[in-house]
Amino acid sequence: MLKIYIPNNNLAERKYIINTVFGEFLGTVYQLIIDNGELKIKDWVIELENGNKLIVEDHFFNKFPQDLEYLKEENIPKKVEFAKNDFCPEADIPIIYGNYQLSIINYQLITCGIDIFASIFFMLTRWEEYASSVRDSHNRFPAIASLAFKAGFLHRLVVNEYLEMLKNMLLELGFNGAFKKREYKLTLTHDVDHIRAWDSPKKFLIRLGGDIIKKRVNLTGAFKILLEYGKVLSKKEKDPFDTFDYIMDLSDKIGVKSHFFFMGRGQTKYDNDYYSASSEAKAIAQNIKNRGHLIGIHPTYNAYNNYKQFKSEKEELEKNFNTQIKFGREHYLRFEVPTTWQIWEDNGMEWESTLSYADEDGFRCGVCYEYRVFNILTREHLKLKEKPLIFMDAIDIEKFSPQEMQEALLKLISQVERYKGEAVVLWHNSNYNTIKWRNYKKVYEALIEWHLSD
């Protein structure tokens, strides 16, 4: 059993880090010992059964002895250096807090200058987003404002790298205990913003006009849309957003359950493209259940920081779809640290998967494992789990060709597979069969084929 010694300050934060790293992520047995001043512990000290020790220097929490004192923008690093050593799984590793110093004495004592634990805490809790005032037009913290983007490690699983480095140092010191066994997992999710593209002639004309003006669809494209609409009206073809059976067929092909996240009744122009009480929505939900796939919530635009709105929508979906709602993702990826997590916790949710950025793909939390979250204001370790989202279809369509999007997606997936994590992918049901998305649909099919041949 490992013995882990920690100083007697910022205890809630320190306990969360140790429990998450050693309990949830590594799955090792440990005893936590809090130094009340007698041992004069200043760093993170890990003692193995053979008496050998790993000391991880504390370069963060000891600077802020008062609770919550660290929650200031000035405490977000301005610069990140990269270290090289034999314990890193990559050629180098970002140093969020700490330095590149590393010493090994007779293979009995390792002192690590990288403050692995404060760095992991920074990424998992997203306290950076609370401390920063930068927001986009939808009141979201953008990727371009994040330290990970600025320092160039947004597309790296930095928390997983820290975990591997920690494991390698423990093994070097003679650790002979067991680590958690993991297997790679693909989780397919689908935010249902719309169930039909053309549910009335009026909406069709409005949408066609919008495509011509905003998306600059030419007359040839407009004529193709008119032809498609005619085929839908005559029931020769399905509505282009009615892809539910197609999605489930692909998921069944690789033995994976699709998660469909539906919306309740919202309050803004970004909501209410359909109503869960409609016979059509109920029929779609029943078909999903009959086929053994899963239904979650896609809270409407303003529900991310509104407990009553979230609760009302959850109850609405449970009533209209006759199912328990335990997971989902926020609409527009709107998220407020720590408010959104607490709302989900207070509504008895099991997991949520909002945490990717709307402006850049990559690893917002720096990890590909689900984990129990931490409320940085109440300083409580919540039951709610975060399943970090690694890819959303809409992010890359404006920047990449289908081939480039496929390469970007599979590059992210391969990193997750390397660490035997969970690859959570979002592809909207409305982004398959429209003229705009038809070529990009092949990217999703390639993802399925990649897993079929893996």
Number of strands: 17
Using only C-alpha atoms, the radius of gyration works out to 24 Å
**Corresponding CATH architecture of the largest domain:** Alpha-Beta Barrel
Question: How much beta, percentage-wise?
Answer: 15-25%
The H-level CATH homologous superfamily of the largest domain, spelled out, is Glycoside hydrolase/deacetylase
Query: What number is the mean pLDDT?
Result: 93
The domain count comes to 2
The helix content is 25-40%
Written description of the protein model:
With 454 residues, this protein is an alpha/beta fold. It has helices at 11-25, 116-125, 127-131, 147-151, 158-172, 201-214, 219-233, 244-253, 279-290, 307-321, 339-346, 393-396, 402-418, 441-453; strands spanning 2-7, 30-35, 44-47, 53-56, 81-83, 93-95, 98-105, 109-114, 185-192, 258-262, 294-297, 327-328, 351-352, 371-375, 380-386, 389-392, 422-426. Helix 9 (279-290) links the parallel strand 10 and strand 11 (294-297). Helix 2 (116-125) packs antiparallel against helix 5.
Quick take:
With 454 residues, the chain is α/β, with parallel strands linked by helices. The protein contains 14 helices and 17 strands. The two termini are 37 Å apart.
